[in-house]
Amino acid sequence: MTAGLVAAPPTGTDAGPAVWPASTAPLPRGGLSVGGVDLTEVAERFGTPAYVLDEGEVRARCRAYRAAFPDGDVLYAAKAFLSRAMVRWVLEEGLGLDVCSAGELELAVRAGFPPGRTVLHGNAKSPADLAGAVRLGVGRIVVDSISEIARIAAAVGPRGCQKVLVRVVPGVSAGGHAKVRTGTEGQKFGLSAADGSAQDAVARVLARPELELAGLHCHIGSQIASAEPYLAALRRMTGLLARIRDDHGVALPELDLGGGHGIAYRPGEPALAPDALAAALRTELAVRCGAAGLPVPRLTVEPGRAVVGPAGVALYRVLAVKRTGGTVFVAVDGGMSDNPRPALYGVRYAPRLIGRAPGAAPPVTATVAGRHCEAGDVLATDVELPGDVHPGDLLGVPAAGAYHLSMASAYNMVGRPPVVAVHEGAARLLVRRETLSDLCLRDVGD
């Protein structure tokens, strides 16, 4: 991890330094505080399940990325987690924004984010997405298909000019799960350089007076913990930049290598440090561009999970404990509706008991299960918990800031949890809990 982001693990806990926020500190009788706030007090005040977000950790991670890429652009990937407060934090710390829909863009602009510092992604952008992006003045639109080029040009009109990037499939396989590997052939994102689709898109964009080709984009996957896949992608992208220069006489000024920077979800897992990644990318980019006689393009990265993931903690109450077929199941009051990632990608978390000291019973290896009517609704397996874990206990799950609320649902008519920010000893509500009344209001039939 980047220096300055991680504190020592709380005394007497299994919390590793890479999975809990740096502000995490032990309290008497098994308590734990984050951002100077007792997590048991958060649970009592706001209820459970609840997402807790350490504002100081988010800001520190934004600053670490800005320091690592001083001559480039860092865009926070809004899909990881977005709220008005998050927009403000990102803006104040000097990052741009990567959005995937008109909804994300509209929220950001309403919260005061300059639209010119945003980039719009999406493999199937709707007419509303494109119209909204052009109307609001989005900085870049990432072209993801040939047919999209004409639609963007039509949305811009004959008197406008929209900057675009062409998303290229570089043929690099990377990522923590097959479902998040997006840099290879045969998946829905981007245009292949191998079959000439990317080169065709470049030629078509250059022929459109309504569009300005600012550069190339790629995104090779998610939860990547090594710099090497990014270096492999960079080498192929600079090769394509050289071919574009040779074919069209244009040296494109921007290269966006996307995001996907990995974090640790359990103690001992690797994480990608932004300063090490930046140093490796800068060196390789200078070497490759020098060899090709290209001016060095401005580099852009798009971290989302790496900014907000380690800043989040999910809180749950234990509802039931039982042994079935030799497995100890600890069932909690949340589950796949507030965190679908274990069911989708097999992600493993490290929950721990907080708020009381364990009894004398030896620890047990347990499965922390959700409340929903699915056998796959499991939040964590092979978790060591106190042997006296019982209903009413409070569990904290670290590394819960990314892709929890943004992917949450109302399955079984269970409302989505609130988001509570903690900072300098104070807690405040960012996003309120979704209630049954909220859900019923959408049902307008008779």
The largest β sheet comes out as: 9 strands, mixed
Helix content: 25-40%
| Rg over C-alpha atoms, rounded to the nearest angstrom | 23 Å
The best one-word shape is globular
State the end-to-end distance.
55 Å
Beta strand %: 15-25%
Classification by helices and strands: alpha/beta
Question: How large is the count of helical segments?
Answer: 12
Which parts are unreliable, with pLDDT below 50 for 5 consecutive residues or more? 1-17
The total beta strand count reads 21
Provide the residue-averaged pLDDT: 92
Walk me through the structure.
It is a single chain. The chain is α/β, with parallel strands linked by helices and 446 residues long. 28% of the residues lie in helices and 24% in strands. Strands 4, 14, 15, 16, 17, 18, 19, 20 and 21 form a nine-stranded mixed beta sheet that branches. An eight-stranded parallel barrel has the order 5-6-7-8-9-11-12-13, surrounded by six helices. Strand 17 and strand 18 (378-385) form a beta hairpin. Helix 2 packs parallel to helix 9, helix 4 (102-110) runs parallel beside helix 5 (127-136) and helix 8 runs parallel beside helix 9.
Q: Descriptors for this entry?
A:
single chain, 446 residues, alpha/beta, nine-stranded mixed sheet, eight-stranded parallel barrel, 21 strands, 24% strand, globular
List the helices and strands and how they pair.
Elements: E1 25-27, E2 31-34, E3 37-38, H1 39-46, E4 50-54, H2 55-68, E5 73-77, H3 84-92, E6 96-99, H4 102-110, E7 118-120, H5 127-136, E8 140-143, H6 146-156, E9 162-169, E10 191-192, H7 197-206, E11 211-217, H8 228-248, E12 254-256, H9 274-292, E13 298-301, H10 305-308, E14 312-324, E15 327-332, H11 341-345, E16 352-354, E17 364-369, E18 378-385, E19 394-398, E20 419-423, E21 426-431, H12 436-441
Helix pairs in contact: 2-9, 4-5, 5-6, 8-9
